[in-house]
Amino acid sequence: MKYVLEVLLVYFTLTVESSQNDPKLPERPEFILPCNKSNPDINNCVIRSLNHLRPYLIQGMNNMHLPSIEPFKIDRMVIENGRGSFRIRAAFFNVTAYGASNYTIKSVKTDVNRYTLELAIGLPKIDIKGKYDVNGNVLLFPVRSKGEFWAIFLDVEAVAKLYGKEVTNKEGVRFMKIDKLAVDFRFKKSRFKIKDVINHGNIIGEAINQFINNNSEEIIKEMKPAAVIAISNHFKSFLNAVILQYPLKLWLPDA
């Protein structure tokens, strides 16, 4: 009898420890194509997983409150630049971007032990429209402009570096959270157009349109550091809203 009790006690102890170390996981959703950390070809596995995710990103996932990326919509984004020749604060509203689903994955570099990912993608064309509100100074001249804008970017190349970390909920389930996201981009051609409701129909409005298109490369160069920060913060929140809903082991079974 004593032996039976000892066996039952050992079994109970092991069961409790096992449940604490590996709590019951929810069913893996169909859009997650997992990769093992031990996979020697982990980079290509990540590429397959990202390509597998494409139709779900295009369709949108209502159960996760994740809208479609085609078009991709941003309710509000603010870019502030306090240095150089273009010292302005630009707020963008109701932004709609077309072409995000046509991404091509150029390369992936993964360090699964440190939870870092470097991703290079290409986009043939991005069309963007929305509303804007700009205050500041361009060169030595004060600028106040508000209205609608349209922009086209061709042959876009972007690099994103994700730095993740493990977080654990009160039930002991581990998740991965993006702690830092750095984005850089470049493109071959761009074209801008604005409809300024403040200066529309007068010489100032036409001059602003002409100035933007004639100096687009210089404007983007000046504004790029601030734009990169705003874009990185937006997509960090966007991605965390997805991955924090599902335990780490659904993405990396042997983690």
Quick overview of this protein structure:
The protein is 32% helix and 40% strand. The protein has helices spanning 2-21, 42-59, 203-214, 216-243, 248-251, and strands spanning 72-81, 86-98, 104-111, 116-138, 141-168, 174-186, 189-196. The two termini are 40 Å apart.
Q: SSE layout and pairings?
A:
Layout (H helix, E strand, L loop, with lengths): L1 H20 L20 H18 L12 E10 L4 E13 L5 E8 L4 E23 L2 E28 L5 E13 L2 E8 L6 H12 L1 H28 L4 H4 L4
Antiparallel strand pairs: 1-2, 2-4, 3-4, 4-5, 5-6, 5-7
What features would you highlight for this structure?
Bactericidal permeability-increasing protein, domain 1, disordered N terminus, elongated, 255 residues, 5 helices, 7 strands, alpha+beta, seven-stranded antiparallel beta sheet
Instruction: Give the strand content.
Output: 35-45%
Q: What's the CATH architecture name? A: Super Roll
CATH superfamily: TULIP domain
- Average pLDDT taken over every residue: 78
Record field, number of beta strands: 7
- Tell me the radius of gyration: 24 Å
For this structure, the CATH topology is Bactericidal permeability-increasing protein, domain 1
First-residue to last-residue Cα separation: 40 Å
What is the element string, with H for helices and E for strands? HHEEEEEEEHHH
Low-pLDDT residue spans: 1-22
Number of domains: 1
Q: Assign an overall shape.
A: elongated
